[in-house]
Amino acid sequence: YDDRDGQIWMDGKLVPWRDANVHILTHALHYASAVFEGERCYNGTIFKGREHSERLIRSGALLDMPLPYTADEIDAAKALVLEANGMRDAYVRVVAWRGAGEDMGVASARNPLRMAVAAWEWGAYYGDAKTSGAKLDIAKWRRPSPDTIPCKAKAAGLYMICTMSKHAAAAKGCSDAMMLDYRGYVAEATGANIFFVKDGEVHTPLPDCFLDGITRQTVIGLLHEKGIRVHERHIKPEELEGFEQCWLTGTAAEVTPVGQIGEDFRFEVGALTRDIAETYEKLVRS
Ligand code: PMP
After folding, report:
1. Can you list the residues of the chain whose pLDDT is less than 70?
2. 202 part of a folded domain
3. Is the same domain home to 164 and 266?
4. How far is the CA of 8 from the centre of ligand 1 (A)?
């Protein structure tokens, strides 16, 4: 994927896709000193682009990495990349990291803070499951507690357990894994938040130790507009038995129905799931 045409924004200027490289002694590669964003551009406009830029800045601050760019500058970099690549519908990845420098150990303050923006076409994150319903494994790894790690940051280091969980899920023929939190409550999937439906009301885990996704917040707003009650609360895995529908939300995932979790829990791709998926689709393109 590194050998192709296109332009990537790096540290303030556009560079050819093939030349967007970093040194092997990049601090982030060794110690995960990196934060990132995943965004989608629809019809030439990034959905909630400003919120993503602001979250990137907050993630950096949480990791003691004060980014040398304002939200306006990050927004401008994203716009430049989309324009330079002639893209109106794309996935946009912004990443900021500690580069190579004098600090070869764990400390990194003397190394430069760097940033890059790339965009590419990325269709349905879960492929056909977008319509038929995804099957989720139940992950062995749990979301860590807020006093173990800055769990509200979209930080590279937090994705190690997500990657391992997703690999384990794929080996079982699943689209993704549902992760529990450190207490054993239902948390989220490896790159998306989770919702359940029961008796016409919606239940979703309280995001007290994982990302309160921008899509999650958008979907809760849509549910409120439709007059549907949303319970943000701690959900025990055994409660899955009583839920009728389930879906995932995320920038890449958009709204994806879930048909099955583990071997025991099955859900219908029901009317509310379809309605929310369609309403979200309309909103991002409006
Ligand atoms: N949780 C995790 C672990 C994620 O990677 C993502 C995707 N950024 C989400 C939730 C959903 O966040 P958003 O809706 O802001 O994309």
Report:
1. none
2. yes
3. yes
4. 23
